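Our collaborator T.R. sent over the components below with a one-line note: 'Predict the complex.' Nothing else. No constraints on interfaces, no templates requested, no preferences about which chain binds where. So this is a plain run: every listed entity goes in together, and whatever single assembly comes back becomes the starting point for the next discussion.
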Amino acid sequence: MKITEDMVDYISQLSRLQLPAEEKTAMTAELERIVAYMDVLNRLDTAGVEPLSHIFPLKNVLRADEVTPSYDRAALLAGSPAGDRETFLVPKAVE
Amino acid sequence: MELHKLTALELAQKLRTGEVTQQEAVDTALSRIHTAQPDNNAFVTVDGPAFPAADLSASPLAGVPMAYKDNICTKGVPTTCASKILEGFVPCYDATVVERLSAAGAVSLGKLNMDEFAMGSTSETSYAGPVKNPWDLTRAAGGSSGGAAAAVAAGEVWYAIGSDTGGSIRQPAAYCGVTGMKPTYGTVSRYGLIAYASSLDQMGPIARSAADCAAVLDVIQGKDPRDGTSLDAPAGGLLASLTGNLKGKKIGLPIDCFGEGLDPEVRAAVLAAAEVLKACGATVEEFALPVMEYVVPTYYIIAAAEASSNLSRFDGVKYGWRAESYETLGDLYTMTRTQGFGTEVKRRILLGTFVLSSGYYDAYYKKALQVKAVIKKAFDEAFTKYDLLLTPVAPTTAPKLGESLSDPLKMYLSDIYTVSVNLAGLPALSMPCGFDGKGMPIGAQLIGPPLGDGMVLNGAHAFQQETDWHKKAPKGGDAQ
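Returned assembly:
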Protein backbone atom coordinates (compact mmCIF):
# COMPACT_ATOMS: atom_id res chain seq x y z
CA MET A 1 0.00 0.00 0.00
CA LYS A 2 1.07 3.58 -0.72
CA ILE A 3 2.16 5.64 2.29
CA THR A 4 1.91 9.39 1.59
CA GLU A 5 3.43 12.33 3.45
CA ASP A 6 -0.12 13.34 4.40
CA MET A 7 -0.57 9.99 6.15
CA VAL A 8 2.74 10.45 7.96
CA ASP A 9 1.59 13.93 9.04
CA TYR A 10 -1.63 12.43 10.39
CA ILE A 11 0.01 9.60 12.37
CA SER A 12 2.71 12.03 13.59
CA GLN A 13 -0.01 14.25 14.97
CA LEU A 14 -1.66 11.28 16.70
CA SER A 15 1.76 10.32 18.13
CA ARG A 16 2.60 13.88 19.27
CA LEU A 17 5.67 13.94 17.03
CA GLN A 18 6.70 16.55 14.50
CA LEU A 19 9.21 15.39 11.91
CA PRO A 20 11.38 17.97 10.14
CA ALA A 21 10.79 17.99 6.34
CA GLU A 22 13.83 15.91 5.30
CA GLU A 23 13.23 13.37 8.09
CA LYS A 24 9.59 13.11 7.00
CA THR A 25 10.52 12.28 3.40
CA ALA A 26 12.90 9.53 4.49
CA MET A 27 10.45 8.16 7.06
CA THR A 28 7.63 8.03 4.48
CA ALA A 29 9.74 5.92 2.13
CA GLU A 30 10.93 3.61 4.94
CA LEU A 31 7.43 3.10 6.32
CA GLU A 32 6.17 2.28 2.84
CA ARG A 33 8.82 -0.42 2.42
CA ILE A 34 8.12 -1.86 5.87
CA VAL A 35 4.34 -1.86 5.41
CA ALA A 36 4.71 -3.42 1.94
CA TYR A 37 6.73 -6.22 3.50
CA MET A 38 4.02 -6.75 6.14
CA ASP A 39 1.53 -7.52 3.38
CA VAL A 40 3.19 -10.99 3.30
CA LEU A 41 0.65 -11.86 5.98
CA ASN A 42 -2.15 -11.67 3.41
CA ARG A 43 -0.83 -14.91 1.90
CA LEU A 44 -2.08 -16.75 4.98
CA ASP A 45 -5.82 -17.40 5.19
CA THR A 46 -6.89 -16.55 8.74
CA ALA A 47 -10.66 -16.55 8.17
CA GLY A 48 -12.30 -17.77 11.35
CA VAL A 49 -9.10 -17.61 13.44
CA GLU A 50 -9.69 -15.91 16.79
CA PRO A 51 -7.15 -13.08 17.37
CA LEU A 52 -4.74 -14.03 20.20
CA SER A 53 -3.76 -11.06 22.34
CA HIS A 54 -2.46 -12.89 25.41
CA ILE A 55 -0.46 -16.07 25.16
CA PHE A 56 -1.76 -17.61 28.39
CA PRO A 57 -5.46 -17.62 29.31
CA LEU A 58 -5.13 -15.20 32.24
CA LYS A 59 -8.42 -13.53 33.05
CA ASN A 60 -9.73 -11.40 35.89
CA VAL A 61 -6.50 -11.18 37.88
CA LEU A 62 -7.77 -9.97 41.26
CA ARG A 63 -6.26 -9.23 44.62
CA ALA A 64 -7.68 -8.75 48.09
CA ASP A 65 -9.08 -5.24 48.58
CA GLU A 66 -6.52 -4.21 51.16
CA VAL A 67 -4.80 -0.84 51.52
CA THR A 68 -1.01 -1.16 51.15
CA PRO A 69 1.56 1.65 51.40
CA SER A 70 2.26 3.50 48.15
CA TYR A 71 5.37 5.43 47.18
CA ASP A 72 5.98 8.76 48.81
CA ARG A 73 4.53 11.65 46.79
CA ALA A 74 7.62 13.83 47.10
CA ALA A 75 9.84 10.92 45.94
CA LEU A 76 7.68 10.37 42.86
CA LEU A 77 7.56 14.08 42.05
CA ALA A 78 11.34 14.29 42.39
CA GLY A 79 11.63 12.44 39.06
CA SER A 80 9.65 15.11 37.23
CA PRO A 81 11.42 17.78 35.14
CA ALA A 82 9.21 20.50 36.65
CA GLY A 83 7.26 20.18 39.84
CA ASP A 84 6.86 21.63 43.28
CA ARG A 85 6.56 19.22 46.17
CA GLU A 86 2.84 18.72 45.58
CA THR A 87 2.19 18.49 41.86
CA PHE A 88 3.58 18.34 38.32
CA LEU A 89 3.91 21.76 36.70
CA VAL A 90 2.81 22.33 33.08
CA PRO A 91 1.79 25.38 31.01
CA LYS A 92 -1.72 26.68 31.66
CA ALA A 93 -4.16 24.35 29.82
CA VAL A 94 -7.52 25.99 30.57
CA GLU A 95 -8.41 29.58 29.70
CA MET B 1 44.26 -16.82 39.83
CA GLU B 2 42.41 -14.80 37.24
CA LEU B 3 39.03 -14.25 38.80
CA HIS B 4 37.36 -12.90 35.68
CA LYS B 5 37.73 -16.28 33.95
CA LEU B 6 35.55 -18.03 36.53
CA THR B 7 31.84 -18.62 36.11
CA ALA B 8 29.52 -16.85 38.57
CA LEU B 9 28.92 -20.11 40.46
CA GLU B 10 32.67 -20.83 40.67
CA LEU B 11 33.36 -17.34 42.01
CA ALA B 12 30.54 -17.63 44.57
CA GLN B 13 32.02 -20.93 45.77
CA LYS B 14 35.44 -19.30 46.30
CA LEU B 15 33.78 -16.43 48.17
CA ARG B 16 32.05 -18.89 50.49
CA THR B 17 35.23 -20.82 51.24
CA GLY B 18 37.09 -17.54 51.88
CA GLU B 19 39.59 -18.22 49.10
CA VAL B 20 38.53 -14.89 47.56
CA THR B 21 37.13 -11.90 49.44
CA GLN B 22 34.15 -9.84 48.28
CA GLN B 23 36.43 -6.81 48.06
CA GLU B 24 38.79 -8.68 45.71
CA ALA B 25 35.88 -9.69 43.46
CA VAL B 26 34.53 -6.12 43.33
CA ASP B 27 38.01 -4.64 42.75
CA THR B 28 38.63 -7.07 39.88
CA ALA B 29 35.33 -6.14 38.25
CA LEU B 30 35.79 -2.38 38.68
CA SER B 31 39.31 -2.53 37.32
CA ARG B 32 38.17 -4.49 34.27
CA ILE B 33 35.24 -2.09 33.71
CA HIS B 34 37.68 0.82 33.92
CA THR B 35 39.90 -0.78 31.24
CA ALA B 36 37.17 -2.05 28.90
CA GLN B 37 34.65 0.82 29.02
CA PRO B 38 36.53 3.22 26.70
CA ASP B 39 36.68 0.41 24.11
CA ASN B 40 33.29 -1.31 24.27
CA ASN B 41 31.00 1.28 25.96
CA ALA B 42 29.06 -1.51 27.69
CA PHE B 43 27.98 0.61 30.66
CA VAL B 44 25.77 3.69 30.79
CA THR B 45 26.29 4.18 34.54
CA VAL B 46 28.90 2.58 36.78
CA ASP B 47 27.60 2.63 40.34
CA GLY B 48 28.22 0.57 43.41
CA PRO B 49 28.72 -1.66 45.13
CA ALA B 50 26.11 -1.07 47.84
CA PHE B 51 27.12 -1.55 51.45
CA PRO B 52 27.06 -3.55 53.63
CA ALA B 53 28.64 -6.54 51.86
CA ALA B 54 26.36 -9.38 50.76
CA ASP B 55 25.33 -12.23 53.05
CA LEU B 56 27.14 -15.14 51.42
CA SER B 57 24.58 -17.67 52.60
CA ALA B 58 21.73 -15.86 50.79
CA SER B 59 21.94 -17.85 47.53
CA PRO B 60 24.40 -19.86 45.39
CA LEU B 61 25.34 -16.58 43.64
CA ALA B 62 25.69 -14.37 46.71
CA GLY B 63 28.52 -11.86 46.59
CA VAL B 64 29.03 -12.05 42.82
CA PRO B 65 29.31 -8.68 41.00
CA MET B 66 26.75 -8.18 38.21
CA ALA B 67 24.86 -5.39 36.43
CA TYR B 68 21.42 -4.53 35.04
CA LYS B 69 20.32 -3.40 31.60
CA ASP B 70 19.41 0.29 31.80
CA ASN B 71 15.66 -0.30 31.22
CA ILE B 72 15.32 -1.96 34.65
CA CYS B 73 14.41 0.42 37.48
CA THR B 74 17.02 0.67 40.22
CA LYS B 75 16.25 2.77 43.28
CA GLY B 76 18.53 5.79 43.50
CA VAL B 77 20.48 4.87 40.34
CA PRO B 78 19.75 6.66 37.03
CA THR B 79 17.66 4.56 34.62
CA THR B 80 17.64 6.03 31.11
CA CYS B 81 16.68 3.29 28.61
CA ALA B 82 19.62 4.80 26.70
CA SER B 83 17.28 7.65 25.70
CA LYS B 84 17.58 11.41 25.97
CA ILE B 85 13.93 11.54 27.06
CA LEU B 86 14.79 9.76 30.34
CA GLU B 87 17.91 11.82 31.01
CA GLY B 88 18.05 12.58 34.71
CA PHE B 89 15.41 10.02 35.71
CA VAL B 90 16.26 8.35 39.02
CA PRO B 91 13.61 5.79 40.07
CA CYS B 92 12.40 5.84 43.66
CA TYR B 93 11.87 2.07 43.62
CA ASP B 94 13.53 -1.18 42.57
CA ALA B 95 12.14 -3.56 39.96
CA THR B 96 11.04 -6.91 41.43
CA VAL B 97 14.06 -8.65 39.86
CA VAL B 98 16.35 -6.13 41.55
CA GLU B 99 14.64 -6.63 44.91
CA ARG B 100 14.94 -10.41 44.58
CA LEU B 101 18.56 -10.40 43.44
CA SER B 102 19.58 -7.91 46.14
CA ALA B 103 17.99 -10.17 48.75
CA ALA B 104 19.94 -13.07 47.21
CA GLY B 105 23.23 -11.22 47.70
CA ALA B 106 23.76 -9.87 44.16
CA VAL B 107 26.31 -7.04 44.02
CA SER B 108 25.24 -4.53 41.34
CA LEU B 109 27.95 -2.43 39.71
CA GLY B 110 25.65 -0.36 37.52
CA LYS B 111 23.57 -0.07 34.40
CA LEU B 112 24.26 -1.47 30.97
CA ASN B 113 24.00 0.13 27.55
CA MET B 114 21.32 -0.94 25.07
CA ASP B 115 19.35 0.15 22.04
CA GLU B 116 17.15 3.11 22.93
CA PHE B 117 14.03 1.69 24.66
CA ALA B 118 15.29 -1.79 23.61
CA MET B 119 14.38 -1.02 19.98
CA GLY B 120 17.15 -2.32 17.76
CA SER B 121 19.26 -5.35 17.01
CA THR B 122 22.75 -3.88 17.36
CA SER B 123 22.82 -1.53 20.43
CA GLU B 124 23.70 1.31 18.08
CA THR B 125 20.53 3.39 18.64
CA SER B 126 21.70 4.27 22.18
CA TYR B 127 21.79 7.92 23.19
CA ALA B 128 24.95 6.95 25.13
CA GLY B 129 26.70 5.84 21.92
CA PRO B 130 27.01 2.37 20.36
CA VAL B 131 28.20 -0.72 22.21
CA LYS B 132 31.17 -2.41 20.52
CA ASN B 133 31.77 -6.14 20.35
CA PRO B 134 34.66 -7.23 22.60
CA TRP B 135 35.68 -9.81 19.95
CA ASP B 136 36.12 -7.10 17.31
CA LEU B 137 35.58 -3.46 18.24
CA THR B 138 34.61 -2.58 14.66
CA ARG B 139 31.56 -4.85 14.97
CA ALA B 140 28.23 -4.56 16.80
CA ALA B 141 27.62 -6.37 20.09
CA GLY B 142 24.05 -7.16 19.02
CA GLY B 143 20.95 -5.88 20.66
CA SER B 144 19.12 -4.73 22.34
CA SER B 145 20.93 -6.05 25.47
CA GLY B 146 24.31 -5.40 23.81
CA GLY B 147 25.92 -3.85 26.89
CA ALA B 148 24.92 -6.85 29.00
CA ALA B 149 26.43 -9.36 26.55
CA ALA B 150 29.58 -7.28 25.96
CA ALA B 151 30.21 -6.75 29.68
CA VAL B 152 29.94 -10.48 30.42
CA ALA B 153 32.08 -11.41 27.38
CA ALA B 154 34.78 -8.90 28.34
CA GLY B 155 34.94 -10.23 31.89
CA GLU B 156 33.64 -7.01 33.48
CA VAL B 157 30.85 -8.69 35.46
CA TRP B 158 30.07 -12.38 36.00
CA TYR B 159 26.46 -12.10 34.88
CA ALA B 160 23.91 -9.51 33.84
CA ILE B 161 20.15 -9.11 33.63
CA GLY B 162 18.81 -8.20 30.20
CA SER B 163 15.37 -8.04 28.63
CA ASP B 164 14.11 -9.87 25.56
CA THR B 165 11.13 -8.71 23.48
CA GLY B 166 12.13 -10.31 20.16
CA GLY B 167 15.58 -11.77 20.82
CA SER B 168 17.25 -8.99 22.78
CA ILE B 169 18.94 -11.35 25.26
CA ARG B 170 19.66 -14.26 22.90
CA GLN B 171 21.01 -12.44 19.84
CA PRO B 172 23.64 -10.27 21.64
CA ALA B 173 24.62 -13.34 23.68
CA ALA B 174 25.25 -15.17 20.38
CA TYR B 175 27.19 -12.26 18.87
CA CYS B 176 29.39 -11.96 21.98
CA GLY B 177 29.94 -15.69 22.67
CA VAL B 178 28.07 -15.91 26.00
CA THR B 179 24.97 -17.76 27.23
CA GLY B 180 21.63 -15.95 27.46
CA MET B 181 18.16 -17.15 28.38
CA LYS B 182 14.67 -15.76 27.81
CA PRO B 183 12.41 -17.62 30.23
CA THR B 184 8.74 -18.54 29.67
CA TYR B 185 6.57 -15.40 29.46
CA GLY B 186 5.06 -14.60 32.86
CA THR B 187 7.64 -16.47 34.96
CA VAL B 188 9.73 -13.35 35.73
CA SER B 189 7.85 -10.30 37.00
CA ARG B 190 7.96 -7.30 34.66
CA TYR B 191 7.33 -4.89 37.54
CA GLY B 192 9.95 -2.14 37.19
CA LEU B 193 10.92 -3.05 33.61
CA ILE B 194 10.29 -0.01 31.43
CA ALA B 195 7.82 -1.41 28.90
CA TYR B 196 8.47 -1.75 25.17
CA ALA B 197 5.91 -4.40 24.11
CA SER B 198 4.28 -5.72 27.25
CA SER B 199 2.86 -8.95 25.80
CA LEU B 200 6.34 -9.98 24.60
CA ASP B 201 8.80 -8.42 27.13
CA GLN B 202 10.56 -10.77 29.52
CA MET B 203 13.75 -10.38 31.57
CA GLY B 204 16.43 -13.01 31.93
CA PRO B 205 20.14 -13.70 32.54
CA ILE B 206 23.22 -13.36 30.35
CA ALA B 207 26.12 -15.32 31.82
CA ARG B 208 29.06 -17.62 31.04
CA SER B 209 27.20 -20.92 31.33
CA ALA B 210 23.74 -22.48 31.37
CA ALA B 211 24.31 -23.41 35.02
CA ASP B 212 24.87 -19.73 35.90
CA CYS B 213 21.65 -18.85 34.04
CA ALA B 214 19.78 -21.53 36.01
CA ALA B 215 21.08 -20.11 39.30
CA VAL B 216 19.91 -16.59 38.35
CA LEU B 217 16.48 -17.81 37.23
CA ASP B 218 16.07 -19.69 40.53
CA VAL B 219 16.21 -16.26 42.20
CA ILE B 220 14.15 -14.11 39.82
CA GLN B 221 11.34 -16.43 38.69
CA GLY B 222 8.09 -16.68 40.65
CA LYS B 223 4.67 -15.11 41.09
CA ASP B 224 4.55 -11.38 41.78
CA PRO B 225 1.20 -9.72 42.51
CA ARG B 226 2.54 -6.43 41.08
CA ASP B 227 2.63 -7.88 37.55
CA GLY B 228 -0.84 -8.86 36.32
CA THR B 229 0.65 -11.27 33.75
CA SER B 230 2.80 -13.06 36.33
CA LEU B 231 2.09 -16.81 36.30
CA ASP B 232 1.35 -18.80 39.40
CA ALA B 233 3.77 -21.56 38.36
CA PRO B 234 6.35 -23.49 40.40
CA ALA B 235 9.68 -21.61 40.63
CA GLY B 236 13.17 -22.53 41.83
CA GLY B 237 15.10 -25.77 41.64
CA LEU B 238 16.44 -25.28 38.10
CA LEU B 239 20.11 -25.42 39.09
CA ALA B 240 19.59 -28.53 41.21
CA SER B 241 17.79 -30.29 38.33
CA LEU B 242 20.62 -29.99 35.77
CA THR B 243 21.75 -33.52 34.96
CA GLY B 244 23.41 -33.11 31.56
CA ASN B 245 21.63 -36.28 30.49
CA LEU B 246 19.51 -36.12 27.33
CA LYS B 247 18.77 -39.83 27.00
CA GLY B 248 15.34 -40.35 25.46
CA LYS B 249 14.88 -36.65 24.58
CA LYS B 250 13.71 -35.74 21.10
CA ILE B 251 15.03 -32.59 19.47
CA GLY B 252 13.36 -31.11 16.39
CA LEU B 253 15.28 -29.17 13.74
CA PRO B 254 12.85 -26.87 11.88
CA ILE B 255 14.10 -27.04 8.28
CA ASP B 256 12.57 -23.62 7.62
CA CYS B 257 15.24 -22.16 9.96
CA PHE B 258 18.10 -23.60 7.91
CA GLY B 259 17.23 -22.39 4.43
CA GLU B 260 17.82 -19.28 2.35
CA GLY B 261 19.50 -16.33 4.06
CA LEU B 262 21.44 -18.40 6.60
CA ASP B 263 25.21 -17.97 6.53
CA PRO B 264 26.83 -21.35 5.66
CA GLU B 265 29.32 -21.12 8.55
CA VAL B 266 26.47 -20.51 11.02
CA ARG B 267 24.51 -23.42 9.53
CA ALA B 268 27.49 -25.77 9.84
CA ALA B 269 28.16 -24.78 13.47
CA VAL B 270 24.52 -25.26 14.54
CA LEU B 271 24.30 -28.63 12.75
CA ALA B 272 27.52 -29.66 14.51
CA ALA B 273 25.84 -28.71 17.81
CA ALA B 274 23.02 -31.10 16.89
CA GLU B 275 25.60 -33.90 16.59
CA VAL B 276 26.90 -33.12 20.08
CA LEU B 277 23.37 -33.25 21.49
CA LYS B 278 22.94 -36.65 19.79
CA ALA B 279 26.09 -37.85 21.50
CA CYS B 280 24.52 -36.75 24.81
CA GLY B 281 21.69 -39.22 24.20
CA ALA B 282 19.10 -37.16 22.30
CA THR B 283 17.54 -38.08 18.99
CA VAL B 284 17.48 -35.29 16.41
CA GLU B 285 15.00 -35.06 13.56
CA GLU B 286 14.17 -32.48 10.91
CA PHE B 287 10.61 -31.20 10.54
CA ALA B 288 8.78 -28.46 8.65
CA LEU B 289 7.68 -25.24 10.37
CA PRO B 290 6.28 -23.17 7.48
CA VAL B 291 4.91 -20.41 9.77
CA MET B 292 8.48 -19.06 9.99
CA GLU B 293 7.67 -17.03 6.87
CA TYR B 294 5.19 -14.93 8.87
CA VAL B 295 6.96 -14.40 12.18
CA VAL B 296 8.86 -11.16 11.43
CA PRO B 297 5.93 -9.08 10.10
CA THR B 298 3.67 -10.42 12.87
CA TYR B 299 6.23 -9.49 15.50
CA TYR B 300 6.90 -5.98 14.18
CA ILE B 301 3.19 -5.14 13.90
CA ILE B 302 2.42 -6.28 17.45
CA ALA B 303 5.59 -4.86 19.01
CA ALA B 304 5.22 -1.48 17.30
CA ALA B 305 1.52 -1.27 18.24
CA GLU B 306 2.27 -1.92 21.90
CA ALA B 307 5.27 0.42 21.83
CA SER B 308 3.20 3.29 20.44
CA SER B 309 0.84 2.90 23.37
CA ASN B 310 3.48 2.25 26.08
CA LEU B 311 5.67 5.17 25.05
CA SER B 312 2.80 7.65 25.18
CA ARG B 313 3.67 8.09 28.86
CA PHE B 314 6.86 9.97 27.93
CA ASP B 315 5.53 13.48 27.63
CA GLY B 316 7.94 15.71 29.52
CA VAL B 317 5.64 15.94 32.52
CA LYS B 318 6.13 12.97 34.83
CA TYR B 319 9.78 11.94 34.50
CA GLY B 320 13.02 12.57 32.73
CA TRP B 321 13.78 15.30 30.23
CA ARG B 322 11.62 18.21 29.01
CA ALA B 323 12.14 20.36 25.89
CA GLU B 324 13.53 23.78 26.63
CA SER B 325 11.15 25.90 24.59
CA TYR B 326 7.39 25.47 24.23
CA GLU B 327 4.30 27.56 24.64
CA THR B 328 1.18 25.46 25.11
CA LEU B 329 0.77 22.10 26.84
CA GLY B 330 0.44 20.47 23.40
CA ASP B 331 3.76 22.04 22.36
CA LEU B 332 5.38 20.72 25.51
CA TYR B 333 4.38 17.15 24.62
CA THR B 334 5.30 17.42 20.94
CA MET B 335 8.61 19.23 21.41
CA THR B 336 9.73 16.92 24.22
CA ARG B 337 8.89 13.76 22.24
CA THR B 338 10.28 15.04 18.94
CA GLN B 339 13.59 16.08 20.48
CA GLY B 340 13.74 13.35 23.16
CA PHE B 341 13.24 10.20 21.05
CA GLY B 342 15.75 8.88 18.49
CA THR B 343 14.90 7.93 14.91
CA GLU B 344 14.28 4.18 15.43
CA VAL B 345 11.96 4.83 18.38
CA LYS B 346 10.01 7.39 16.33
CA ARG B 347 9.81 4.92 13.44
CA ARG B 348 8.26 2.24 15.66
CA ILE B 349 5.87 4.69 17.35
CA LEU B 350 4.69 5.86 13.91
CA LEU B 351 4.40 2.30 12.58
CA GLY B 352 2.47 1.25 15.69
CA THR B 353 0.16 4.25 15.47
CA PHE B 354 -0.46 3.43 11.80
CA VAL B 355 -1.37 -0.25 12.37
CA LEU B 356 -3.73 0.74 15.20
CA SER B 357 -5.34 3.66 13.37
CA SER B 358 -8.90 3.65 12.13
CA GLY B 359 -9.12 2.06 8.68
CA TYR B 360 -5.93 -0.02 9.06
CA TYR B 361 -6.51 -1.79 12.38
CA ASP B 362 -8.20 -4.88 10.91
CA ALA B 363 -5.80 -5.24 7.99
CA TYR B 364 -2.66 -5.07 10.13
CA TYR B 365 -3.09 -5.32 13.91
CA LYS B 366 -6.03 -7.73 14.01
CA LYS B 367 -4.48 -9.79 11.20
CA ALA B 368 -1.19 -10.03 13.17
CA LEU B 369 -3.05 -11.26 16.27
CA GLN B 370 -4.72 -13.93 14.12
CA VAL B 371 -1.38 -15.02 12.64
CA LYS B 372 0.04 -15.06 16.17
CA ALA B 373 -2.64 -17.66 17.05
CA VAL B 374 -1.55 -19.73 14.01
CA ILE B 375 2.13 -19.44 15.05
CA LYS B 376 1.38 -20.52 18.63
CA LYS B 377 -0.61 -23.52 17.34
CA ALA B 378 2.31 -24.56 15.10
CA PHE B 379 4.67 -24.53 18.10
CA ASP B 380 2.12 -26.38 20.28
CA GLU B 381 2.00 -29.09 17.61
CA ALA B 382 5.79 -29.26 17.35
CA PHE B 383 6.03 -29.80 21.10
CA THR B 384 3.67 -32.79 20.93
CA LYS B 385 6.50 -34.49 18.97
CA TYR B 386 9.67 -32.90 20.39
CA ASP B 387 11.05 -31.98 23.81
CA LEU B 388 13.23 -29.18 22.40
CA LEU B 389 13.83 -27.39 19.11
CA LEU B 390 17.29 -26.40 17.86
CA THR B 391 17.79 -23.40 15.52
CA PRO B 392 20.38 -20.74 14.78
CA VAL B 393 20.05 -17.55 16.86
CA ALA B 394 20.76 -15.17 13.99
CA PRO B 395 21.39 -15.63 10.25
CA THR B 396 24.94 -14.24 10.49
CA THR B 397 27.57 -13.38 13.07
CA ALA B 398 27.94 -9.78 14.37
CA PRO B 399 27.75 -7.18 11.56
CA LYS B 400 30.11 -4.22 11.19
CA LEU B 401 29.03 -1.12 13.10
CA GLY B 402 26.82 1.13 10.98
CA GLU B 403 25.75 -1.59 8.51
CA SER B 404 22.32 -2.21 10.05
CA LEU B 405 21.30 1.37 10.74
CA SER B 406 21.20 2.22 7.05
CA ASP B 407 18.53 -0.38 6.28
CA PRO B 408 15.89 -0.82 9.01
CA LEU B 409 13.91 -3.51 7.15
CA LYS B 410 17.06 -5.63 6.73
CA MET B 411 17.72 -5.27 10.45
CA TYR B 412 14.15 -6.41 11.25
CA LEU B 413 14.59 -9.48 9.01
CA SER B 414 17.71 -10.53 10.95
CA ASP B 415 15.42 -11.23 13.95
CA ILE B 416 13.72 -14.12 12.14
CA TYR B 417 14.89 -16.99 14.39
CA THR B 418 14.23 -15.29 17.72
CA VAL B 419 10.91 -13.38 17.47
CA SER B 420 8.66 -16.46 17.13
CA VAL B 421 9.69 -17.51 20.65
CA ASN B 422 8.31 -14.26 22.11
CA LEU B 423 5.11 -14.48 20.06
CA ALA B 424 4.50 -17.99 21.45
CA GLY B 425 5.66 -17.10 25.00
CA LEU B 426 8.26 -19.91 25.02
CA PRO B 427 11.54 -20.34 26.95
CA ALA B 428 14.67 -20.25 24.78
CA LEU B 429 18.41 -20.06 25.29
CA SER B 430 21.34 -18.96 23.17
CA MET B 431 24.61 -20.87 23.64
CA PRO B 432 27.99 -20.43 21.96
CA CYS B 433 28.64 -23.22 19.42
CA GLY B 434 31.63 -22.11 17.36
CA PHE B 435 33.33 -19.29 15.44
CA ASP B 436 33.22 -18.13 11.85
CA GLY B 437 36.26 -17.55 9.63
CA LYS B 438 36.58 -14.00 10.93
CA GLY B 439 36.85 -15.24 14.51
CA MET B 440 33.36 -14.08 15.54
CA PRO B 441 31.22 -16.25 17.85
CA ILE B 442 28.22 -18.25 16.57
CA GLY B 443 25.18 -19.06 18.73
CA ALA B 444 22.74 -21.97 18.69
CA GLN B 445 19.23 -21.61 20.10
CA LEU B 446 17.37 -24.22 22.14
CA ILE B 447 13.60 -23.64 22.41
CA GLY B 448 11.34 -25.41 24.89
CA PRO B 449 7.58 -25.74 25.46
CA PRO B 450 5.83 -23.31 27.86
CA LEU B 451 7.32 -23.76 31.36
CA GLY B 452 9.96 -26.08 29.89
CA ASP B 453 12.72 -23.74 31.16
CA GLY B 454 14.41 -26.59 33.01
CA MET B 455 14.51 -28.74 29.87
CA VAL B 456 16.08 -25.90 27.85
CA LEU B 457 18.73 -25.29 30.51
CA ASN B 458 19.48 -28.99 30.79
CA GLY B 459 19.93 -29.26 27.02
CA ALA B 460 22.42 -26.41 27.09
CA HIS B 461 24.12 -27.78 30.21
CA ALA B 462 24.58 -31.15 28.48
CA PHE B 463 26.10 -29.37 25.47
CA GLN B 464 28.43 -27.35 27.69
CA GLN B 465 29.63 -30.49 29.49
CA GLU B 466 30.86 -31.78 26.11
CA THR B 467 32.19 -28.55 24.55
CA ASP B 468 34.17 -25.53 25.68
CA TRP B 469 32.87 -22.84 23.30
CA HIS B 470 31.26 -21.06 26.27
CA LYS B 471 34.67 -20.84 27.96
CA LYS B 472 36.29 -18.88 25.14
CA ALA B 473 36.95 -15.21 25.83
CA PRO B 474 38.05 -12.37 23.57
CA LYS B 475 41.57 -10.91 23.75
CA GLY B 476 41.71 -8.48 26.59
CA GLY B 477 39.09 -10.79 28.10
CA ASP B 478 42.11 -13.13 27.92
CA ALA B 479 41.39 -15.91 25.44
CA GLN B 480 41.86 -19.40 26.84
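Summary for T.R.: The domain at 5-43 of chain A is CATH 1.10.20 (Histone, subunit A).
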